[in-house]
Specification:
Layout lengths: L10 E3 L9 H6 L21 H11 L5 E6 L6 E9 L2 E9 L5 E8 L3 E3 L4 H8 L12 H8 L12 H13 L4 H17 L23 E2 L3
Parallel strand pairs: 1-2
Antiparallel strand pairs: 2-3, 3-4, 4-5, 5-6, 5-7
Length: about 220
């Protein structure tokens, strides 16, 4: 078991999957599913094609094997992404881990729409840029950044040229062609900003406060 207490499904380590064709189409294009794009989102944005995306979806959404992506941090909270493949109730759960705690808090989920407490741009970058090589999990900063991107709930980030450049650089690092990485970055940031639910009055999940946690805590196995 990868997460003690999170025993509602058959968890398997998924850290090798982001390097395979079709992964990023499945993980990121769901954010563009509201039909607001003038230009339809396509797997080719990520250097993939429809066949790649279909093949990977069979792996990612297998009810018998739920991929888990552990994102440990060297200094401060880390995260875990779980593909919750309940039959008829597919979704993605986002958990937060803290040093010295034997459990993780589920802070958000994606079930066709985002719910829970997300991260500001600054928090997202901090998590992505502080891997912990001594702990098993995803260490590559671009991969960490993109795995956690659906958590971004910062309404001002779409106006930031540096945010767009950072996202485009991360996409290129995982295989997106240079001529489509910037297009994908602009689309993804626009959708993230549009559906942003960040309320300045909420406690950040990284602040040490309880915030708006969307599920019971679960224990984490090293």
């Amino acid at each position: 078991m990868l997460i003690k207490g999170y025993d509602i499904g058959p968890l398997v380590a998924g850290e090798s999957l982001p390097a395979l064709p079709g992964f990023w189409s499945n993980h990121l294009l769901a954010m563009c599913s509201d039909g607001a794009c003038a230009e339809p989102p396509v797997p080719e944005w990520f250097g993939e094609d429809g066949a790649d995306a279909d093949a990977m979806s069979e792996v990612l959404f297998d009810p018998d094997r739920w991929p888990v992506f552990r994102i440990p941090a060297e200094d401060g909270p880390g995260a875990v992404v779980v593909y919750r493949n309940l039959d008829g109730d597919y979704g993605t759960d986002y958990l937060l881990t803290r040093p010295g705690r034997p459990y993780a808090e589920q802070i958000a989920g994606w079930d066709g729409d985002f719910s829970g407490t997300g991260l500001t741009w600054r928090e997202l970058v901090r998590l992505a840029d502080n891997p912990s090589p001594a702990v098993e999990g995803v260490q590559d900063t671009a991969t960490r950044f993109l795995l956690l991107l659906p958590l971004l709930t910062d309404p001002d980030v779409s106006a930031s040229a540096s945010a767009s450049a950072r996202l485009a650089t991360a996409l290129a690092a995982v295989g997106a062609p240079q001529d489509t990485a910037s297009i994908a970055a602009e689309h993804l940031l626009a959708h993230l900003t549009w559906r942003s639910r960040h309320d300045p009055g909420w406690a950040s999940p990284l602040s040490g406060e309880s915030g708006h946690v969307v599920a019971a805590s679960v224990s984490v196995e090293p």
